[in-house]
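G., the chain you wanted modeled:
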Amino acid sequence: MNTLKTDAFILSGFKYGDSSKIITLFSEEVGKFSAIVKGVRNNKSKLGGVFENMNHVNVIFTKKDNRDLQFIPSAECISSFSGIKSEFDKLMIAYKLVELTSKMMYEYDVSKEVFYLLRHALYSLNSAGNNFSAIMLLYQIKFSIIQGIDPLNIQSRNSDVNNFVIKDNSNKSNMFFDNKKRNYIDKLSSMTFEELNSFEADSELVKQIQNAYEYHFMTSIGKYGFSKSNQIIDELNNKHYK
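Predicted structure as tokens:
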């Protein structure tokens, strides 16, 4: 039983009981985990607003290995990403970023590389001007390389450590990546999120490659789903354009 202090991003959350909330976090020190925050929905709670989806927070909790849900008594919000939440197109991208991370990471599987990647992506998206369509794609590219599931360089992962092995889907994956897409991916993979600010993205090509990566994640791992983020985006679209 260890008392830990760690930065984390709120991947999802829902109401529990009269005043509590159950959340899923992706943290720097312990990876993805779920926790209960008691009384957070009370009007007088000091933690009100801290655990909203996508927020960057710092949490203090005592990790108990025999618990499915950890208990978080103390936290502070580092950023609520107002630049994302106030702009519809950015919000759609952010939902996809956090869902990809949530679906593809196992509980307590620590990856500081993925944590820093998500942090860079969200902060870049938060401050970006109009040219941010390639942020999701760059995240997909770098995420797949870090996790050893790059569709252009298929590698098996150690099932003893990571609990899954890539299927041999190289032919299926490659059929979605012609030379034009491969060259575009090569160009992007060497860039940082900050460099995207001055990069003129081909929006149609970016969308095609994003879809190819989504298909690759779904078929190669059999774990990543689309339904939740698409449902949220559809709901937001209906509200936004009414």
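The beta strands are 2-16, 20-27, 31-37, 56-63, 70-71, 74-79.

Shout if anything looks off.
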